[in-house]
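May I ask for a protein sequence together with how it folds?
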Amino acid sequence: MDILRFATAGSVDDGKSTLIGRLLFDSKAIFEDQLEAVERTSRDRGTEYTDLSLLTDGLRAEREQGITIDVAYRYFATPKRKFIIADTPGHIQYTRNMVTGASTADLAIVLIDARKGVLEQSRRHAFLTTLLRVPHLVLAVNKMDLVDYSQERFEEIREEFTSFAAKLNAPDLTFIPISALHGDNVVSRSESMPWYNGSSLLHHLEHVHIASDRNLVDVRFPVQYVIRPQRATDPALHDYRGYAGQVAGGVLKPGDEVMHLPSGLITRIASIDTFDGPVDEAFAPMSVTLRLEDDIDISRGDMICRPNNQPHVAQELEAMICWMSDVTKLGPRTKLTIKHTTRTARALVRDLHYRLDVNTLHRDESAQSLGLNEIGRVSLRITQPLFVDDYARNRLTGGFILVDESTSNTVGAGMIVEAK
């Protein structure tokens, strides 16, 4: 059974937490004691209905303010698929949290209040999901019950958003009218909107095609750990040498010819081992151990790829950065640690080309630095070569994080635009 990771985003009071609560409740993914606690809290607050948003608003500060602050992960499953939900905050001051939640998502749901229409925040969320290359975008027009389930209002919002999305790189865009509070078109089709002939939100989540979203062409295997059992009681394991890691792209099979970087040496895969035993093939995002036919000096941070399909070997990078530190700013001459796949190196910011206004998409080329939650394009110089792809081609080998050398705090997330 495959897993769909999806992120939700929306402005304050768009009903995001209620929608997730409704998905969990209607798909029978919550325990009785959880439901009782939510019902009790709803009564204490004086609400006439069970407030399902309380299922997801976990932090006490969130419950008291009625807003989502942190990224909350929720898990549920149906007979068709398993799901991981990243419930991300809508406020502009939590842009970094949304970037974190959406960076690994296969799909993003942007909620829009049917009464308010497409807001500045809606545009920002849509832009961030396309910047992060989330392959599928669902625009859920919520609170349809408050506009009398008006088809005309839904079409207005769809038209307005479609014209805005033309400026973005949104490969798959779906519009669904819903009422999270009453469950219309969330898990099952709504009788209140006979004019809508599409699928419910859960049906769409169960059936959206994600297998081809991952890069199955470019073989990329960053080595995370070299396995040499030193005290093996089994004589067959005395000479065992395996290279463990997560497949970041392509398909690997025993017998395949592969190249090791940085040495450039070519060998073949002898076998592919997993926790459950040997497998005939491995693909992203499987975690496996490769055994090679020849003894090559391989260590953590090295890359295994195809001889005729190699990543860029680069020390100069052009990248879009989302700055996440509220203590320091990012500007020219800033020194940082860069973590890319399994390789760590030191990096210097050579230039800040522009700061991007995520609401208007305007490029401010006069910007001197990036502050908390700001996004811009920078040039980086790395102390040692990295094995990279453009983020648009492979999100795993095209993304990286920046770490403050003095505090070891993660201060930035980057997407490679070009490697030199």
User: Anything to note?
Assistant: The chain has three domains: 3-207, 220-305, 312-419.
